[in-house]
């Protein structure tokens, strides 16, 4: 992964907004881009390879499921990450699986 890539949990698995968003915006220099930025989100079923797709397309570093350990929830809540080498500045959002087994929603 690229050095300047970072990820940040925006909303916890319990639905609580992380009030330290300023750390992400400062680390990624988001404010320097004014209104010239894009946000891309991906939603889908648990273990649908959402994190993998975002990591491949935007060079983010979202945690991915290890198939050898079995299928289980990897992403909880909503995570955001800075896309690398993309113009305009792009924020990728990785959303918890829409049918989370751990939440009894199968």
Automatic annotation (TrEMBL):
Domain GB1/RHD3-type G: 34-106
Keyword field contains Nuclease: no
Gene Ontology molecular function terms on file: GTP binding; hydrolase activity
Keywords: Endoplasmic reticulum, GTP-binding, Hydrolase, Membrane, Nucleotide-binding
Similarity comment text for this entry: Belongs to the TRAFAC class dynamin-like GTPase superfamily. GB1/RHD3 GTPase family.
SUPFAM superfamilies for the chain: P-loop containing nucleoside triphosphate hydrolases (SSF52540)
Range of residues in the leader sequence: none
Name of the protein: GB1/RHD3-type G domain-containing protein
InterPro entries xref list: G_GB1_RHD3_dom (IPR030386), P-loop_NTPase (IPR027417), RHD3/Sey1 (IPR008803)
Top-level taxon of the source organism: Eukaryota
Organism, scientific name: Populus trichocarpa (Western balsam poplar)
Pfam families hit by this protein: RHD3_GTPase
């Amino acid at each position: 992964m690229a050095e300047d890539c970072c990820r940040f949990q925006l909303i916890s698995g319990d639905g609580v907004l992380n009030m330290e968003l300023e750390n992400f915006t400062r680390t990624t220099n988001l404010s320097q881009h004014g209104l010239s930025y894009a946000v891309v989100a991906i939603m889908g079923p648990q273990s649908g390879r959402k994190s993998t797709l975002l990591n491949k397309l935007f060079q983010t570093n979202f945690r991915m499921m290890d198939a050898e350990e079995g299928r289980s929830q990897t992403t909880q809540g909503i995570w955001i990450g800075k896309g690398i080498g993309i113009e305009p500045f792009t924020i990728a959002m990785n959303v918890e699986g829409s049918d989370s087994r751990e939440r009894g929603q199968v």
